[in-house]
Every structure is written in C-alpha cells, then in structure tokens.
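ok here's the first one, seq then struct tokens
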Amino acid sequence: MRPIWLLALAAAALAAEPARLFYSKSFPGSSPAYAAVNLDRDGQADYRESPDADNPLKFQLSPKETEEIFALVEKLGKFTRPLESNLKVANTGVKTFRYQSGTERHEVQFNYSLDADARLLLDWFERISETQRYLIKLERSARYDRLGVHQALLELEVARDRNRLVAPQQFLKVLERIAKSESYLHMARARAAALAESFRAGVAGGQQQ
C-alpha cells in the first residue's frame, strides 16, 4: 500500500496539469471522414485524421489565438451544459468538445448548435483543421507534384484572404524552400515568397502575438 503522502503528492501533481482542449468531427462520407485537434493551454497543438494516428501534425498557436479559444471555453462553462439545438437540420457530422484539467473533465457532443459562443469555437477548430489540410497539400505537392505547387499556393492565398488560416507561421519553412529552389516554376517561387513575406509581416505586426 502506498503511503498517504505519496498519494497526496500524485493527486496534487494531477490537479496541477495544464488544461487541454479536444475537438473532433466525425462525418462518414466526407473528406476527411474524421478530424481531431488537441490544444494545450500553452498553445501546443496537434492535428490528426484518424483516432488512432500515431504521428499527428504538431504546431504552435500564438498566445493571442490560444487566449481567444480558451476564453470561449470559459463562456461555455467548460462544456458543462448541452449545446445541441435539437432542431431538424441536415446532418453535418458529430462534433465533440472536451475540456480536461487534472481531475476535471467535461465533454459535449452536437450536430448543430444555436449557441453563438459554441459556433465561434467551432469555427476556430474548423479553421485550425483547414489550415492543417492546406499545409498537408502544399507539402505533398512540393515533394511529389511540383507542377501542382502553384495551384496549392493559390488555394493557400485564397484561404489567407478569407481569414481561414490559424498560426500561418507554420507555413514558412515549406514556403521558403519553394521560393529558393529553381526546380519550381518561377510564378510558384514568386507566389511562395510573397506569401512567406505576408505571414512574417503578420507576426511582426502583432496579428499573431
């Protein structure tokens, strides 16, 4: 039997664990059919398209982005109340929000919600998921389909202009690699350089701070 002080220490350590958010969307027949994001209170995050994926994409959100997301979670009572509208609407996939901090854990699922804060939070996670898919496509094109790189860059530029990107600094590495390599079309290199500059300017200007 473990000493009481050791059990107390373990309980204290568990209670001190930083908060973590989990989001998933399960929608069989769509592409992807499943997507999930884990987000820690310090902004560390990962994205996966399979519940049992052993190599998720890892990335870092800015303090501002992280604060805005966790502020919405607080407004939603850390998911302690239902969010489903119960309206007869089309099935758009089962969304799951989960909050965990130490021994505290709350989870809610819904198809469609009328709660304004829930919809704002859903949009955050949808944009995070979209961002990762744009990154996956760009990196795949840069490696295996160099003629398709320009189209991937055009789609990324449209997403930027529509404000659908979260933590765009994660694109800098692949954009700089494209911009500096003569193996890509000149227009792709020029567009990659311009996108990289706009993302760096956004960070420097405080948009992602």
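and now the second one, same deal
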Amino acid sequence: MWQRAYLHKLQSDLELWIERGWVTPANAEQILKSAEERPSTRRMPAILAVLGAVLIGFAVMSFVAANWYEIPKLAKLIAIFVAMSAAWLAAIPLERRGHPAFAQAAILIGLGLFGGGIMLIAQIYHIRTDDPGGVLAWCIAALAAAWALPSRPALALGILLSVFWTVFAVQLDEGSPHWAFWIVWLAGAALALRLAWLPGFHLSLLSLILWQAINVDAISNTFAIAPEHIAVFLILEALAIWLAAILFSSRAPRFASAAEAYAIVATFVIFWILQLDPGGTTPEESAALWSLIVLVPVIVVGALAFLCLTRGRIDARHGSAIVSIAVFSLLWLPLQNAAPALIPWLYAALFLALAAWLVSYGTARDSRFAVNFGFVAFGAEVLWLYFETLNTLLDTALFFALGGILLIVGALFMERMRRRLVKLADGGAS
C-alpha cells in the first residue's frame, strides 16, 4: 500500500518536473523504473543474516546460563574469546568481497559473544549478572564498533543496551536518577546522525522516552517535585524539541520530521492528561526548586520560538499556538490550587481547539502526520467527553445508540475532511 502511494506521488512529481524542464523524459523513466523495484528481495538476505546473528547471540547467552560446570573455567573463556575474535575477523573478508550484510551480521555475532563473555566471567567469579557495569561495558563495545567500522546493527544494539543499563542501575539504586545514561545517549544519537540512519534516530528518541518513564519516580523523590510539576516540565521539553525540529527542518528534513512527530505526540498526550481531575498539589514540597528548574525549558522554548519566527521557519499564528501550549501548561499549576473545578472544562476545551489547530498546522506545513494526528486527537477527545459526561445522564440503551450514530457520522465527516486536507497538503508539496 505504501509502495503504491509512493509511486503514484513520484509519478505526478516527475510529470511536473518534466514540464518544468528539471528532468528529461528518459531520466524520469529510469527513476520510475528504479523506484518500482521491490526492495524486499534485495534486503531479504541482509535481514535474514542479521536475524541469524541475533539468534546466535541468544544461543550463546543461553548456553552460558545453562551452568556448564563440567567444562574448565579456562576452556570456557578461551572458547568464548576465540569465537568472538573469529566472528570479527570474518567480517573483514566478507566486507572486501562485497557482502556487507553478512559482514554486519558477523560483527553482531562478535558483539553477542562479547556479551556472552561478560556473562560467563560474571558466572565464574560469582558476580551479579544484572550488574550495571557489565551491561555498560557491552554497550560501550557496541557503540565503539558502530563508530569504528561503521555498523548500524551495532549502533542499534548499543542503544538497546543503554536502556537495559539504566534499568539495572535504577533497580540497584532506587533513590537517585541515572544521570550517566545521558553520556551514552548523546553518543548513540550522534552516531545515528553521523551514519545518517533514521531508524537509529528513532531508537534514540524512544530510549529518551523510556529513560524518563523509568526515572520519573526517582526524579520526583530526589528534587521533592510533585508528578504534576514533572508533567508540565515534560510538555515544555517536548515543545523545545518540536521547535528545534522546525528550526533545523531545512538542514536535516528526515530527522527533523521524526523528532517533530515524537514531540507532537508527547505534547498532546501529556496535555490531555492535564484535564483529568486534579488531586491537589503540595506547594511546600514542590515549589522549592521548581522555579529554577522550569526556568531553563521556558527560556529554551522562548528562544527557539523567536528564532523560528525571525528566520521565517514558521508562521506567526502557528508559532503563537505552540507558545500558548507552554503558557497554559504553566498556568495549570496555579489553577490547580486556585480553581481545581475549572480545570477539566477549560483544558478539555483547550485540547479540542489545539487539535483543530494541529490539522491547520499540518496542512500549512505539508505534514500528513500532523493532519492525521490532529484528527485522531480531536476524535479521541470528543469520545472521552461523550463517555465522561453523558454516561451518567442517559439511559444505557439510548446512550449506546446515540454513541453509535455519533461515531458513524463523525467518522465519515472526519475521514472526508482528513482526505481533503491530506490531498491539499500533497498538492502544496508538489
């Protein structure tokens, strides 16, 4: 489905480029023929090779965990490190003979054996197998291989291991956040950009989200900040990423688009949570460092918004809407204490208005994702309000009947509107 849509869009673009004299008809035919080739057949050996390497890595770790006490300790170590060296050395002739996928698989096998060697040493010398130091060593080895060779599978392994490292570290010391993760995260994100590998960049963004989810309790306890304050901070952080993606969209459009998509989702999901019934906060516990902590993202958001507006990266109305999200997020904290009954209604209305604005924003910036997500957010909020407000006011049968009618009619209307706006955005892009 995605391939057909891409080819249809490419064909219309080529016709326009031929008309403008940018591409000759012969070149356009070759471009279209190249795009019609199925990438799955070319990539299948590489995919199978990497999957085979992953299975071998799991086999080694399972073998180590099987308590093979009858083999001498020295023989175990020699077997692991000889196999690891053989895998890495095999990558050299595979790469020279034009088999890069199999060379990458050999590198991944070597890294898997390296992890198995760490587990074996931990088993021999009775070290905890979930010790953060061992996982960190494995992670550093994977990132070093990704940088030196370079190797995208090694980078993916390094990013995944960084998440496991922070999980083990938090479990070992539940009292403080795992700040050292950021050093490894920056290295992984920089490598993803250096290798121009979009999936690696996605992994970096996902690992960032996972770190915050894992460390939220530790951050709250360390700085005596209520979870409500952390939610506001996360909205400001997402807005900063959003604006930074807009600012650098011309230099790295693919990476900026990915970062913008994650920022949009994070902003709207957390902003939606603000409309839930507040439980009240404790200013004496939360306000001590809050003003200093929140000042940094506020300055960053303000500076990025100013740069985007002055450099013409975004229209004033859209920039104002993004800044208004930050303003209403900050206002939520005093409103929570002054007028908690007002919050569900006010922020529900704000969420609907922002979801409708996001559709307009996506249309103006030729962003299919923003258009589609705006409709999803608007529809989800309408459903939430329907179930939250009318469920206690209507008879059960009438409630479900009316809900079914509204769902069908609303879905048809929103789908027609969505297709029209997506078509308009595609037309503007071409």
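notes on #2: The chain has a mean pLDDT of 80. Residues 224-430 form one domain.
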